Amino acid sequence: MTTTNLNKTYLPPVAELEPQWYVIDAADQRLGRLATEAARVLRGKNKPTYTPHMDTGDFLVIINAEKVAVTGKKRSQKVYRRHSGRPGGMKTETFTQLQARIPERIIEQAIKGMLPKNSLGRKLFTKLKVYAGPNHPHTAQKPETLTISTIPGV
């Protein structure tokens, strides 16, 4: 009688690891709900072949980042910080100021915070492409439209 080792790590077949491309329209979508769905797709948790220690996710293009919505008083009270590394080098901006300057960074930071904090997370983050307007240069990859079935805008 032979026994099988049930403690083997699952490895998906190489043929199933082919990533797909998706487009999400961020216009009038809530920031947090958009970010959680985007992080799930990047991580590959929406697939049956999900493996925690591997990159099984897909590429993601987010358009209309300038039209993302937030609820409550976040437009004036949410603060984004960055530091130059020098003494006194902390710079802060509100949501409205950052959205006027670099609207892509708001979505990028929200999604990056939901990915693993290691080399896998850094690799997954390179599969995210965010654009302020409705146009993107990834039409050659034939991305599919991904609709998020959460509550729309404010």
Walk me through the topology.
Blueprint: E1 21-25, H1 31-43, E2 59-63, H2 74-77, E3 79-83, E4 90-94, H3 95-101, H4 103-112, H5 119-125, E5 128-130, E6 144-145
Parallel strand pairs: 1-2, 1-6, 2-5
Antiparallel strand pairs: 3-4
Helix pairs in contact: 1-4, 3-4
Pfam families: Ribosomal_L13
Biased composition (Polar residues): 142-154
Subunit structure: Part of the 50S ribosomal subunit.
Short description:
With 154 residues, this protein is α/β, with parallel strands linked by helices.
Report on this model:
With 154 residues, the protein is an alpha/beta fold. It has one domain (19-145): Ribosomal Protein L13p, Chain: A, CATH 3.90.1180. The chain is 27% helix and 16% strand. It has a four-stranded parallel beta sheet with strand order 5-2-1-6, with helices on one face. The N and C termini lie far apart (63 Å). The model has no long low-confidence stretch (mean pLDDT 92).
Domain module count: 1
Based on CA atoms alone, the radius of gyration comes out at 18 Å
Low-pLDDT sequence parts? none
> Could you state the order of secondary-structure elements as H and E?
EHEHEEHHHEE
State the distance separating the first and last CA atoms. 63 Å
Helix content: 25-40%
CATH superfamily: Ribosomal protein L13
Bin the strand percentage. 15-25%
Number of strands: 6
- Average residue-wise pLDDT: 92
Query: Largest beta sheet: what is the strand line-up?
Result: 5-2-1-6
Largest sheet features:
4 strands, parallel
CATH topology title: Ribosomal Protein L13p, Chain: A
**Chain oligomer state:** single chain
Question: Could you name the CATH class?
Answer: Alpha Beta
Q: From the coordinates shown, what is the CATH architecture?
A: Alpha-Beta Complex
Tally of individual helices? 5
Structural class, from secondary structure content?
alpha/beta
Q: What spatial form do the alpha-carbon principal axes imply?
A: globular
Protein name: Large ribosomal subunit protein uL13
GO molecular function, one term: structural constituent of ribosome
Subunit structure: Part of the 50S ribosomal subunit.
Pfam families: Ribosomal_L13 (PF00572)
